[in-house]
Amino acid sequence: MSQYPPRPASLALYKQAPALVGAVAEKIEISLPGGGVKRVRPKDLQILHPGPLADLDALRPAVGDVSEAWELLAGSETDLKEVAELAFGEFTPNAAWSVWQLLADGLYFTGEPWKIQAVSEAEVARVQQERQAKAQAEQEWSAFIERMRRGEMAADDRKRLAEVERLALGQGESSRILQALGHPEKPEFAHRFLVSLGYWTETHNPYPQRQGLPLEDPALEMPPLGAAAREDLTHLPAFAIDDAWSHDPDDAISLDGERIWVHIADAGALIAPDSAADLEARARTGNLYLPERTVHMLPPAATLELGLGLQDTSPALSVCFTVTAQGELEAIRLVQSRLRVTRYSYAEAEGLMGEAPFAQLLAAARRFQERRMAAGAVNIDLPEASVRVRGEEILIAPLERHSSREMVTECMLMAGEAVARYALENALPIPFVSQPPPATAARPSAPAETYAFRKTLKPSQVKTLEEPHSGLGLPLYTRVTSPLRRYLDLVTHQQLLAHLQGTAPMDADQVAERIGAAMAVSGGLRKAERFSNLHWKLIFLQRHPGWQGDGVVVEVQERRATVLIPELAMETKIRLNQEPALDSWLRLQIRELDVPAQVAWFRVLKS
User: Fold this and answer.
1) Could you tell me the CATH number of the domain that includes residue 131?
2) What pLDDT is stored for residue 4 in this prediction?
3) Three-state secondary-structure class, residue 115
4) Which residues constitute the domain of residue 90?
5) Least trusted range by pLDDT, from 221-225, 299-303, 561-565
6) What domain count does the chain have?
7) How many CB atoms lie within 10 A of CB 589?
C-alpha cells in the first residue's frame, strides 16, 4: 500500500508505468506517458511521491551512488523514501521514480515501494555474472546474425547452425536463426540457406533423413547358417541376372528339361522370426536405394553369405514348376537347395537370348505373359531411368527394354504365383499382394493414354487374405524373390521354411502384425528414393546449364502441358502460347531450377 493518499500533481505507479494524478474523486483521473488520460479506481494506483509534479515528461533519472546506499542498507528492510535519500540525497519525484526502476531492475533491491529489502552481496554477484554472460551472448548472437546476412560462416558457427539443419532435415519445426533473418521456416528454405553458407555441399541429399530413415547398414553379428538338408542342384546351370550396379543378387533361374527353377537366397534359414536381425529388418522394411549409395536392410554379412553367386556355392530356396502351352503353372515344388550361380547383367545376358537355355526360358516367359495379358494385366510403358552417382559423376541411364529383363521379370512373377498357390494349398499365412481392378477396361497404347490410365489405378494391397492382382493379371500373388531387399519377402521365406522343416509357422495375426509394421515404413522409403532420384537429376541439370532434350506431351490443361522427358525419366509442366496436341514432341532446354524446392523449368525450342 502507498504511504501517501492520491492528490493532484502526485506521482503514481499504474501497471508498472508512471502516471500523473489529476482530479481526485470516486475514480481518479490520471495522465499517462504519451498524453493519454484515464479514470481508474484508487486501488489500481500506488502513489510513489506526493508531488508536486508538473508533467511526466519532467521525470529524469536521478544522479547518485546506488551501490553505497545498497551497502548501507544491507540486511535491513526500508522504504522508497529512505533509499531515495541515501542513494540520491533527496526525495523528489525524479528520485522516487529512479528508486522504483531500481526495484524493477532487481539487482540491488527487491520488494514493494514501501517494503524494500537490500539484496545480498552473493546474490548481486551472481546476477551481475549472469547479466554479463547474457550481454556477451547477445553480442555474439548479433555478430553471428550479421555474418549470416553477409553469407559468411566462421568455424564456430556450425554448432549454432545445427538448429537450421534440424529444420532442413524435417527434425524440427522452427529456427530462431531463420526468424532473425526474415526467412520462412520451411525445410526447403533451410536447405537453400545451408548450401549458400557452405554448411552443406550443393549435392547434399537430405531426403532419407527427412523420412527418418537410417543411413548406415545394420551393425549386427550373424549366426552361422544352419546345417539344413539341401537338395544338391550344383549340376544345374543357374543364372543371376540383374542390373550391372546391383550387389545383392537374391534370385537366379535355371532350366531343367521342361522344368523351370527360380532360386532365391535362403534368407529364412539365417534370419529367424523375432531375432535381432529380423527386428532390425522389420524396422527398415527394405533396402534404401539411393543414387549415391545403398543402405541395406540386413547386415552386409548376411548378403555376403546368402547372395547368389557371391560364394562358390550358394544356399537357396528353390521353386520349381512347369509352364503349359497356355501359360499355366503346374507341378509346383519347393526345396532348400545348394547351387552354383553365374552372374550376368541384363546387357550381358541379352547377347545370349538366342541360345539355350535362355531361348527356352524366354519362350516360357512369353507364354506366361500372354496368359496374364489375356486376363487383363496392365502394361505401364512410361520412361524409367537409373540414376547413379560415382564420385563426382552423375549417370542417368534410361532403362532399356531388354528381352533378358522381360524374361527375368516374368520368371519372378511365376515364382510369386507359384508360392502363393503353395501357401494357399497348405493353409500357410503369408503376405499376399493384390490389386483391385481399374475403373476402365480399356488398355492404353500411346504415352498420353498411359499417363492418364496410370492415374486411375488403385494401389496394391498386402494382407493375409488372397485376392486377385488385377494389374498383373494373376488370380493370386505374393512377392517372394527379394528376401535380402524386402522384409515381407523375408517373412514369406520364414513361413515357407517352417512348413518345409515341419515346425510351427507364425499365425495369421503375427503375419498381419508384420505387414502393418512394414507398410508403416515403406511409404517413407519410397518417398526417400523418389525425392533422392529427382535431387540428383536436378544436380545433373545444374551442372549442365545448356542441357537440351526431347519431351512428349501427355496432358494439357488450359495451355499448360505436362511433358515427360524420357532421357531423364522426368516430368515437368510448361505453359505454352498455343495448346499442343497430346503425344506431340517438344524440344526443350533447361531454363531455371531450384534444387532445394525440387523444381525445374524448361523452355521450348521447337516442336
Assistant:
1) 1.10.10.10
2) 87
3) strand
4) 11-122
5) 221-225
6) 4
7) 13
Amino acid at 455: K
In the chain, the N- to C-terminal Cα span, in Å, equals: 87
Q: What is the pLDDT of residue 598?
A: 97
Q: What is the pLDDT of residues 174-217, one digit of tens each?
A: 999 999 999 999 999 999 999 999 999 999 999 999 999 999 99
Q: Mind listing the pLDDT tens digit for each residue in 297-308? A: 999 999 999 999
Same domain, 435 and 524: yes
Q: 427 and 513, same structural domain?
A: yes
Residue at which a domain ends, from 535, 567, 586: 535
Classify 325 as helix, strand or coil. coil
How confident is the model over 516-538, as pLDDT tens digits? 999 999 999 999 999 999 999 99
Instruction: Identify whether residues 472 and 505 lie together within a single domain.
Output: yes
Helix 276-284 vs helix 508-543: angle between axes, to the nearest 10 degrees?
A: 50
Do 560 and 435 belong together in one domain? no
pLDDT at 2: 62
Query: Which parts of 276-409 are beta strand (E)?
Result: 288-290, 293-295, 314-323, 329-339, 341-345, 385-390, 393-398
How does residue 607 score in pLDDT terms, banded at 50, 70 and 90?
A: low
Measure the CA–CA gap between 408 and 537, rounded to whole angstroms.
Answer: 28
d(CA 61, CA 173): 44
User: Does 588 share its domain with 523?
Assistant: no
Note whether 550 and 493 are same-domain residues. no
CB 107 within 8 A of CB 117: no
